[in-house]
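FOLDING PROBLEM:
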Amino acid sequence: MKIVLDSPINKYYVQTLGMIFFPGEHFGENEELAPGEPLLSVRTVEEEGGIRAFATMSIDDKSESAEYFAEFIPERTAERTLKLAIGGAVLAAGGALLGYRPAWGMMIGVRPSKVASELLDAGNSKTRVKKILNSDYLVIPKKAALATNIAITEKNIIGAPSPKDCSVYISIPFCPTRCTYCSFVSYTSKRLLSLIPEYIEKLKTDIKANFDLIARLGLRVRTLYIGGGTPTILDARQLSDLLGYIASVTDVSALDEYTLEAGRPDTITEEKFKIAKEYGVTRVSVNPQSLCDDVLCTVGRSHTVDQFYEAYDIAKRSGIRTVNVDLIAGLPNDNFRMFSHTMDEIIRLDPENITVHTFCVKKSAEVLRQNSHIYSVRGGDAGKCVDYSQIKTDQAGYIPYYMYRQKNTVGNLENVGFSKPGYEGLYNIYMMEEIHSIFAAGAGAVGKLVDNTGDCCNKREIERLFHQKYPYEYLKEDRREAFAEAAVRFYTERGML
């Protein structure tokens, strides 16, 4: 996609708006427009009382133009006004060209509830916030209500964040097979899986270093999350070794939440969940993604629907407090009939958490090599599936408690976590809303140092600490001292010690 810009706005913002209508597009610097390549031109002018934006979107011999005026008001910055003007013009031009209205309007960020939260912080009522999202950001009413309700739920859970709080993330980046849609750093070959014993030993040294650093900074660990990959790819002895070591370096009984993202049903056994319960795990994920064997086969999941039921039964009988189940709407070869059956079955099973993701096409995913046309602006049945999940969870007494969005999601839709009251996944909220620092260990893991001493999310400074992406790189290089120095400097400079 080619962008022609005559405005002080960040070009990336305009590119992301363009991808609402042309998901999966690349942005080259070539002067010439390639055959079939979309073109988006944007121009802005500041007028008395506001900013007017002009947008033209074209593909092949079709073209549509639109303009949009955003008024200066005391409640929003000049930059926000500029973004609203451009967003309104691009949405109008793209909508006229393709006959498509995105449900989330011009909201392109990962955290839709952030804007709702900021509006609530500014003293707006719930009704007023929904109206602003609809009228200013062009979000359809049911999505505006969803963002607002989640923002209110998150505020009630978070309360007043303390600069002394933190969480810990531990990465197990290995899987039994790689799903065709996966973009995570996860590894499946025999050669790479043979690294697991050495990886665990290195991981333990980093876990110890993290908890020593946390103690040095005088912080309290609120939640601990072991993710992947598939953490339960570890055999029972390896899992016992890892969880036992964690219990030896921190008081797991003091955690508000301790998650083991078991994930793949074909890696779950009674022995592993007995070990998890013994070492204090309070939340597990058992993730079928779909309850249709044909769909599972299409996306490279090596387990069956029957294996999910067996794994779920193990999880419920384990005595672990909270069981989460992940589903994906809009998977290849899935449709509304099959997804609604999956949703009905999961509701019948009555887990404490249900997370419904929308199928997201990542550039590194195997599915793109199988079908380069899999990107979908309207998303097929995905919209109906997402709506159904939200209706059925509401009827069953679940509340939506956190949400995030990704680029190139079919239908430009959202991922939502639902919970029975009192069983919300706390780490998900803390991580997504950047409430406090996250100390991370393992290949592909990213730590976040968060200054939460400001008045609201906008004022938080964040510094990210990246571990090596690949396990073999992680095994070769030690970054503990560099991370410790960065953390001590971050907390000292901001007077947070």
The radius of gyration is 23 Å. The chain has 17 helices and 15 strands.
